[in-house]
Amino acid sequence: MRLVYIVNVKLPTVKGYDVNVTKMCEAFGRIADVELVVPKRRGITGDPFSYYNIAETFRIVRVYSLDLLEYVYWLGYWMQTITFTVSALLHLARYKRGEIRVYTREYLIASICHTLGYDVVYECHRVLSKKTLFFWLLRGVPYVVTNSQGVAHEFEARGFPRVLAQPNGVTLEEFASGESKQYLRQKLDLPSLPEFIVMYLGHLYAWKGADTIIGLAEACRDQQGVTFVCVGGLASDIGKYQTQARQKNLCNIRFAGHVPKRETPSYLMAADALLLPNSPVSEESVSYTSPIKLFEYMASRRPIIASDLPSIREILSENYALLVPPDNVPAFRDAVLKLKRDEYFGAELASRAYGLVTQYTWQRRAERIMDFISTP
């Protein structure tokens, strides 16, 4: 049976969940016939397979959508969503119901396809604020896959019979270069050893702890030999936090900006410690998220300092990382200095975290999901 994965995301892009989609299609493609249906939209140019460093185990089909988001966002959002949904459904019409399985991250498409009689799997990473309507639209969808126990509990509490929680994953082979930390720093133009580099990877959103990072850099300004590096983020967010850093006279923080996905392992392995400072400002941060960066951090064999939140504790405990109260800059500072003082302690944490992450590869995730949706 063919798996038709439908998702409304432009490829490539600097957003986040496209990594989950492409990595999962690559993994699904090793055990099934997979077609990824996405909209034709303006975005980063380039070949998605090269951009995401993935094998061509699946096909990408681009269908029409009216892309006016840059000009009239709210109206443009719905026009793009509706035209993509119609185009995706017209694409599905070429197949007989019994010869395909629809796999989607789009709740409207999941609802419509189920009503039309398709075999549907809905993957959910967050619950919309209008929960009653959200769950009503999805009623009857036979299979639900979530990225966290927090999201799974929302579905189970409403009587959905088949729900599988599967956290995000990582491709371990991307972290097997064997290149030394010093070599990577030279290649990436980062401070040489013995400078202690504390790195953050991802978007500079408030709920992801961007304000904590700035506060932490300020709290460590008196510490010689400590540099903070932020990799990723939209240009507008980078500009905002660069301005804050200048206003505070912070010379110990750098913003590397967006880098291609294939380069992020090198950055992580060039660091001495890795930050995951999520803030408990939303249900998504507290209960729903399964940060892809977390698994990449674990695979890089570098010690992790993370906010102590239920979403993070689904994977980590004190055996694998330094967990500190979220938004608590002094606690994050103490954790940074502890890792700087005690290299052996950090190496032990990182080694145990790497042993744990071997359970969380994209391929294993795909196999568990395929087993789940193959069970009547």
What report would you give on this structure?
The protein is of the alpha/beta class and 376 residues long. It is 41% helix and 17% strand. It has 16 helices and 13 strands. Strands 3-2-1-4-5-6-7 form a 7-stranded parallel beta sheet, with helices on both faces. The chain has a 6-stranded parallel beta sheet with strand order 10-9-8-11-12-13, with helices on both faces. Helix 9 links the parallel strand 9 and strand 10. Helix 1 crosses helix 16 and helix 8 packs across helix 14. The longest helix is centred in the first third of the chain and has 20 residues. It is globular and about 65 Å long. The mean pLDDT is 94.
What best-fitting shape do the alpha-carbon axes yield?
Answer: globular
Our measurement of the CA-to-CA distance between the termini, rounded to an integer number of angstroms, reads 15 Å
Total number of strands:
13
The number of helices is 16
Fraction of residues in H or I helices: 40-55%
Averaged pLDDT: 94
Spatial order of the strands in the main sheet? Answer: 3-2-1-4-5-6-7
Assign the structural class, choosing from mainly alpha, mainly beta, alpha/beta, alpha+beta, or little secondary structure. alpha/beta
Percentage of β-strand residues:
15-25%
How much is the radius of gyration in Å? 21 Å
The main sheet comes to: 7 strands, parallel
Instruction: List unreliable stretches of 5+ residues.
Output: none
